[in-house]
Amino acid sequence: MKILVLHGPNLNMLGTREPEIYGSLTLDDINAALSQLAFDLGIEIECFQTNSEGRLVDRIQSAAGLFDGILINPAAYTHTSVAIRDAIAAAALPAVEVHLSNIHSREKFRTKSYIAPMAIGQICGFGADSYLLGLRAIFNHIKK
Ligand code: CA2
Q1: What is the pLDDT of residues 6-34, one digit of tens each?
Q2: Is 78 left (phi over 0), alpha (psi -120 to 50) or beta?
Q3: What are phi and psi of 112, to 5 degrees?
Q4: Residues 6+ apart with CB under 8 A from 16
Q5: Are 71 and 131 in contact (CB under 8 A)?
Q6: Which candidate in 7, 22, 114, 131 is catalytic?
Q7: What is the DSSP letter of 113?
Q8: Catalytic annotation on 77?
Q9: Angle at which helices 128-143 and 27-41 pack, to 10 degrees?
């Protein structure tokens, strides 16, 4: 089993600012924890971060046939991107949406996700654990 892990815009800044919202771990720390969990589960992951909406669409499009599922934190594009939503729908791969913060308890504009209706589920509010729970969720879903 091979899972593509996608991190959206500004997540490369993790660990530098706003630790009260996003925690103090860096993106490398999160990727390392995901790699350890992937090893424990006996699966492969590939992690990719970009600030570009188009590059996220490109990676989702090219995932078909190479990956069994997508774990994605679309970051701010969650609340704006029909392009990423359409790419996930077209890829026809199971996707799990994750967020570090609880997007439902923050500003109203963050409560809307264009991605969630295309995902098998959404996990938010658990910091880096959202990613780990998300990886377990997509693993269990695919294994069934
Ligand atoms: O809670 C999440 O994971 C978010 O996807 C994070 C996005 C935000 O736009 C979403 O509404 C919720 C923002 C990521 C920006 O992360 C930074 C971290 C440190 C310093 C600056 C930005």
Answers
A1: 999 999 999 998 999 999 999 999 999 99
A2: alpha
A3: -90, 125
A4: 26
A5: yes
A6: 22
A7: -
A8: no
A9: 30
Distance 144 CA to ligand 1 centre (A): 32
* Residue 131 is a catalytic residue: no
pLDDT bracket for residue 72 (50, 70, 90)? very high
**How is residue 105 written in tokens?**
């308890």
What is the number of the ligand 1 atom nearest to the C-alpha of 130? Answer: 3
Name the band, by pLDDT with cuts 50, 70 and 90, for residue 75.
very high
Ligand 1 atom with minimal separation from the 75 CA? 5
- Residue 95, Ramachandran bin (φ over 0: left; ψ between -120 and 50: alpha; else beta): beta
Task: Give the mean pLDDT of 126-144.
Answer: 98
Structure tokens at 43: 């699966």
Q: Give me the domains of the chain, ranges plus CATH numbers.
A: 2-143 (3.40.50.9100)
Instruction: List the residue whose alpha carbon is closest to atom 15 of ligand 1.
Output: 10
Q: Which of 77, 99, 114, 131 is catalytic?
A: 99
- pTM score > 0.90 for this model? yes
Q: Please, where are the H alpha helices in 18-127?
A: 19-22, 27-41, 53-61, 82-91
